[in-house]
Design goal:
Strand content: over 45%
Number of strands: 8
Helix content: under 10%
Number of helices: 0
Structural class: mainly beta
Length: 108
């Protein structure tokens, strides 16, 4: 669980989605307000976003800008580990969207 102690910290989540052969690992450095993705096709720099939804649950999202101009996002409900990964890809000049739900666990 993410705490608001005011101290800088690094958080990591290992996520598994049915459409991915390997797990995706999201690492967020709160001190630098930076994040990265490890897995899939290597590594990538992400934009992190943290908030609380109406039910009071903490949610963290990661946006990945691609070289083709599209965005991929992953959102994790922190206390349950439920996650959704969305790809907004363009292939051959046409949209090729996909979405997958999965499960994440926070790594310590």
């Amino acid at each position: 669980m993410i705490s608001s102690t005011g101290h800088a910290a690094t958080f990591a989540w290992e996520c598994k989605f049915p459409s991915f052969r390997n797990a995706l690992t999201f690492v967020w450095d709160t001190d630098k307000s930076s994040a990265s993705l490890i897995g899939g096709a290597g590594s990538a720099t992400l934009w992190p976003n943290f908030g609380t939804i109406a039910s009071g649950q903490a949610v963290v999202s990661f946006a990945e800008p691609t070289s083709g101009g599209a965005i991929q996002t992953t959102t994790i409900i922190v206390n349950t580990g439920e996650a959704i990964h969305s790809r907004n890809a363009i292939v051959g000049g046409k949209f090729a969207p996909s979405q997958d739900s999965g499960q994440c666990r926070q790594k310590r």
